[in-house]
Design brief:
The complex is a heterodimer.
Chain A: E1 2-10, H1 16-25, E2 38-47, E3 50-59, E4 78-84, H2 89-104, E5 110-115, H3 126-134, E6 139-141, H4 150-162
Parallel strand pairs in A: 1-3, 1-4, 4-5, 5-6
Antiparallel strand pairs in A: 2-3
Chain B: H1 6-20, E1 23-27, E2 33-38, H2 54-57, E3 72-78, E4 84-92, E5 95-102, H3 104-175, E6 186-192, E7 200-206, E8 211-219, H4 223-238, H5 250-260, E9 271-279, E10 284-290, E11 296-299, E12 307-310, E13 329-332, E14 337-342, H6 359-366, H7 376-388, E15 397-404
Classes of the chains: A alpha/beta, B alpha+beta.
Chain lengths: ~160, ~400
């Protein structure tokens, strides 16, 4: 079966691990547990008639003192760039990561996930999201808590990496 | 390391091996596993097969070969056994060495510190956000407070103006009330509206040298509306402004007043009235009533034995029915005596325990011996307030006293 490595990137606390847990194990916990290093999960899905095994690299989030190691994306077919809609500054972190990946790895497929959309108190203005769309970013709304949009996000990325 | 004696190097390697559970694998240029060694079971990497693709058996090797940089480190990777390993990749000629070192303890320690730091950072971010929201709420509150203060100021101005107008209205209502008389009989009165301005009014005047008219009316309700009607009705009687009506005839007066003051022409307001005409030479009193409480006649000198009786007259409330014939009654006034004409507010008084003052109690209060320190009517008002248990009464308190001396 075809294997594809994909990565989850973003600032710390945006919900990368929760999205992975929701997608792989269909579970969610409100307790925040930070990720140190890397955790790799595997899940199979069908893209049309093609079965594919996704190797999902859940990489520790970026913070003020440690940047995401883009070299971990070596061999990755695509990535999900996660933003926490309740923390506006995570959008700028995502922009920064995407720029570095583009330089160091190249223009591999990626999707931007606007996560925690179940929380009504958004901290990101529509204009900022529209600006990213204008730059060609594909934005999807997700909630690891409710599961909304999660399956679709991974499936959409899988479709892109196989295209 | 090259300067260290072989024994020391070997000893150090043994130490690292013991502490870090060293394991290794070798991959050839076709990316097949060609060699396995060390504590692979510690990481749950059992059943690896030599001669097969490394990425098929080791998920972390997917896409890693050929190596882009060497040595290459994947830090803190969770392994199938749950242990955390640093994965070191070294290129050595045509093969790549994969060396695993257990870093579980360091990982857990780092995780604890990082967890604390991130929790603190997230809390700080939330706090900063809350402060911004609080500041915005505060600004909104200040704005609302200012708007409220401005509204209050405008209301105060309006209130002050209305109070002034009310005061002027009250002054006018009182101005239409005649002064007390002392001759040929004593006439005193008391008028205490329940609000600033009430619906009671009264008056008296000489129609001619022999006939003295006196009357008291009570418009339903209180306030400006009731006061306007009471003053208008009072003025009609005072100025004898009913065409072709003999004001010496109480029934004619009430019949005419009833036609003029039909409620549909006067904002649905109506009133009770007692109208009497005293004939001085004969001492005869003729009177009529439109739903008004009967006056009380008390014979005898104040303080002496007294006998009281009501002067009732039947008739519907004025202004409700257009076709009404009021019927006058008459009674001869024999001095010494006192005649009290009043509104229902003078005796329909509810106590704090919800019981009502009885008319007999009111009558008894009027029969009390005089008090040199306070006028009789003021004493009656004090009695009403004591009964009510409050300085402000429920209804207008109006009473006229005519005292005929022997």
């Amino acid at each position: 079966m075809m294997q594809k490595k994909i990565c989850l990137l973003g600032a710390f606390g945006v919900g990368k691990t929760s999205l992975t847990r929701r997608f792989v194990d269909s579970i969610f916990s409100d307790a925040y547990l930070t990720t140190v290093g890397v955790k790799i999960d595997k899940k199979q899905l069908d893209v049309g008639a093609t079965p594919v095994s996704l190797l999902i690299w859940d990489i520790a989030g970026e913070d003020e003192v440690s940047a995401v190691r883009t070299s971990y994306l070596r061999g990755a077919a695509g990535y999900l760039l996660v933003i926490d809609v309740t923390r506006g500054q995570t959008l700028e972190v995502a922009r920064s990561i995407q720029a570095r990946v583009a330089i160091e790895i190249g223009n591999i497929p990626f999707l931007c996930l606007l996560n925690k959309t179940d929380v009504p108190d958004w901290d990101i203005a529509d204009a900022r999201i529209d600006a990213l769309r204008d730059e060609g970013w594909s934005m999807l709304r997700t909630s690891a808590k409710t599961g909304a949009g999660v399956e679709d996000a991974f499936a959409a990325l899988a479709q892109r990496v196989l295209a | 390391m090259q300067e260290l004696p072989a024994k020391v190097s070997e000893s150090l390697l043994e130490l690292v091996d013991a502490q870090r559970f060293l394991a290794h694998m070798v991959v050839d240029e076709q990316h097949n596993l060609v060699q396995l060694g060390g504590r692979l079971d510690h990481y749950g990497l059992t059943g690896l097969a030599v001669g097969t693709q490394a990425s098929d058996q080791l998920s972390f090797m997917e896409g890693m070969l050929p190596l882009y940089e060497t040595p290459f480190l994947i830090r803190s990777l969770e392994m199938p056994s749950g242990r955390i390993a640093d994965v070191h990749l070294f290129a050595d000629g045509k093969v790549v060495w994969i060396v695993l070192m257990d870093m579980t303890a360091e990982h857990n320690e780092t995780r604890l510190v990082q967890q604390k730091a991130y929790d603190m950072t997230l809390l700080s971010e939330r706090e900063a956000k809350l402060i911004v929201q609080l500041e915005a709420a505060n600004t909104e509150l200040v704005r609302a407070h200012t708007a409220l203060a401005e509204s209050r100021e405008a209301l105060l101005v309006t209130h002050k103006r209305l109070q002034q107008e009310l005061l002027e209205a009250e002054r006018y209502v009182r101005s239409v009330l005649p002064a007390p008389l002392t001759e040929p009989f004593l006439l005193d009165w008391l008028f205490v509206p329940t609000t600033e301005i009430g619906g009671d009014s009264f008056g008296y005047h000489w129609i001619d040298a022999e006939h003295f008219a006196f009357y008291l009316l009570d418009v339903c309700g209180h306030g400006i509306g009731a006061a306007l009607l009471s003053v208008a009705a009072n003025q009609t009687l005072r100025s004898q402004a009913l065409r072709e009506i003999d004001f010496r005839n109480p029934e004619a007066v009430l019949n005419a007043m009833n036609l003029v003051y039909q409620m549909e022409l006067h904002n649905d307001q109506y009133f009770t009235i007692w109208y009497g005409v005293y004939h001085l030479p004969s001492g005869n009193l003729r009177y009529a009533s439109a739903g008004h409480p009967a006056p009380l006649l008390i014979s005898g000198v104040p303080g002496g034995p007294c006998e009281s009786r009501l002067l009732p007259a039947k008739g519907p409330i004025l202004g409700m029915l257009p076709r009404t014939n009021y019927i006058a009654q008459s009674s001869v006034i024999v001095a010494p005596c006192r005649l009290y004409v009043f509104s229902d507010g003078a005796f329909e008084i509810e106590r704090p325990d919800a019981s009502m003052l009885t008319f007999e109690e009111f009558q008894a209060a009027l029969c009390r011996p005089p008090d040199a320190n306070v006028s009789e009517l003021q004493r009656l008002l004090d009695f009403a307030r004591d009964t009510r248990g409050h300085h402000v009464l429920e209804d207008d308190f109006s009473i006229m006293k005519l005292e005929f001396r022997g």
